Predict the structure.
Amino acid sequence: MGPTGSVAGSIYSDTTGPVAATSNTGMSKMGEASSEGIFGVAWGDSSIKAAAAAGGITKICHVDSHTTTVLGVYGKTTTMVYGE
């Protein structure tokens, strides 16, 4: 289902939601990292670590995730990290 919850459509899903938050303040930077899969073959790195590195973030404020699936055959997850 992905980290955004248990809502899933059998034909198409497109969900965005929170993953985590910290007590750090400030969101001058944002980094993204994605992974995809089709027909049971997956590639990419949508980890929080990869997204933070892409944005040059060392102090994470919060993390969101966006997941898209089509017919259970294709899926993509993007992790967005906000911080300093």
Remarks:
- The radius of gyration is 13 Å.
- Residues 24-83 form one domain.
